[in-house]
Amino acid sequence: MLWTGGADFESRGLAVPELAEGDSLVRMTTATVCGSDRHTVSGRRPGACPSVLGHEGVGVVEATNADLPVGQRVVFAVTAVCGECGHCRRGLSAKCSTVAKVGHESARGGWPLSGTYASHIHLPKGVAVVAVPDAVPDAVASTAGCAVATVMAVLEAAGDLRGRRVFVNGVGMLGLIAVAAAKARGAAEVLAFDPTPARGQLALAAGADASLDQGDPPADIDVALELSGADAGVRSCLASLAIGGTAVLAGSVTPSPEVGIDPEWLVRGWRTVTGVHNYEPRHLRQAVDFLAANGSRLPWEQILSGPIKLADLAQEFAAPSDGLRTVVSISD
Ligand SMILES: [Zn+2]
Ligand SMILES: [Zn+2]
Which ligand has an atom closest to residue 82 CA? Predict the structure, then answer.
């Protein structure tokens, strides 16, 4: 389903590429619609066009020149990386100097079948692929590749959560996963804030100990996770930090107003502020493990809407379904 600009999608046949060494062709069964695709279609975020959008999905290996069994059910990373540049070698492959992205590449370029809103996706050698256990349903597994894996990277940056007070700002898909994963990792208390009351209720359903009415948590938070991208959220995460506290910012992916930091407060308080964007292959494996072990902590019946058919994608973007993720059923 080719995105041809604005709100337009066209069903189009694209050639299946010759698979190079390490490449795979995956037959898609399910995709989920990430909010960033909605931003691309609405013009709030630049995107290659025409292109096959969609970067969350699950499918079955149909042909491969990699060390993968044909027929294996898999999820895959959002980044295609070289493995050789300076960033890749130091373990920051998300920032690979030649990074290409699943669901973000022009259909007229060298990687036309890059997205999950299609019958098949071509996975070049540099895209991490992870097998999905049978116990994880397709629609749940589909969220691993963007939302869940990113949260795994965020939590790694946050450090040991056992016994900690955690604040999660912004309860979209990432925030909701963060709440459940923080509890699963032994956080003593998880407080969540989202300006939409229904999202606060979702946070409680995912295991949050409290949903705040205002974005002003008490100033004794050990770990603050900023997943909204709002500068007010960044401010409240910083203001909440206790002595020794860590704030991880992952929501700020578009230009936003500067936020000041008092260096003396940072220094005397042994506080840490760090940023995370995308993730490493190990985080995708952790995402699948989390969904297998703890996925049932999440209120999927409220998170997921659909399923819709691939042919109904344009309608879905024009009039979004309720829920945090719309499921696109591709196999039928
Ligand atoms: Zn995404
Ligand atoms: Zn690289």
Answer: 2
Q: Is residue 223 part of a domain?
A: yes
- Same domain for 137 and 17: yes
* C-alpha to C-alpha distance for 252 and 314, rounded to whole angstroms: 27
Whether residue 253 is found in the same domain as residue 185: yes
The ligand placed nearest to the CA atom of residue 143 is 1
- Ligand 2 centre to CA of 156 (Å) is 21
pLDDT digits (tens, 9 = 90+) for 173-221: 999 999 999 999 999 999 999 999 999 999 999 999 999 999 899 999 9
Angle between helices 147-158 and 281-294 (to 10 degrees): 100
Instruction: State in Å: Cα 242 to ligand 1 middle.
Output: 31
Å from CA of 102 to ligand 1 middle:
10
Could you report the per-residue pLDDT of 26-58, keeping only the tens digit for each? Answer: 999 999 999 999 999 998 888 999 999 999 999
User: Taking the model in full, what pTM does it have?
Assistant: 0.97
Count other C-beta atoms under 10 Å from residue 133's C-beta. Answer: 12
CATH number at residue 41: 3.90.180.10
Give 283 Cα–ligand 1 centroid separation in angstroms. Answer: 15
211 CA distance to ligand 2 centroid (A)? Answer: 40
Please give the distance, rounded to the nearest whole angstrom, from the Cα atom of residue 325 to the centre of ligand 1. 10
Ligand 1 centroid to 189 CA: how many Å? 27
Q: Are strands 165-169 and 73-80 parallel, antiparallel or unpaired?
A: unpaired
What is the distance between the alpha carbons of residues 317 and 243, in angstroms, rounded to a whole number? 44
Domain count for the chain, please give it: 2
Q: How many CA atoms lie within 13 A of 198 on its CB side?
A: 7
Please check whether residue 11 is in contact with residue 309, taking contact to mean a CB–CB distance below 8 angstroms: no
Measured from the alpha carbon of residue 84, the closest ligand is: 2
Domain that holds residue 107: 2-145+299-329
Q: Which ligand is nearest to the CA of 324?
A: 1
